[in-house]
Amino acid sequence: MARVFNFSAGPAVLPEAVLQQAKEEMLDWQGSGMSVMEMSHRGKEFMSIAAQAEADLRELMAIPANYKVLFLQGGASSQFAMVPMNLLRGKTGADYINTGAWSKKAIAEAKRYCKVNVAATTEASKFSTTPAQSELQLDADAAYVHYTPNETIGGVEFPYIPETGDVPLVADMSSTILSRPIDVSKFGVIYAGSQKNIGPAGLAVVIVREDLVGQTIAGTPTMFDYSAHVENGSMYNTPPTYTWYLAGLAFAHLKSKGGLAAMAEINQRKAAKLYAAIDSSDFYANPVTTESRSWMNVPFTLVNAELDAVFLKEAAERGLMTLKGHRSVGGMRASIYNAMPEAGVDALVELMVDFETRYG
Ligand SMILES: *Cc1c(COP(=O)(O)O)cnc(C)c1O
Question: Where in the chain is the domain with CATH 3.40.640.10?
Answer without folding.
Answer: 17-256
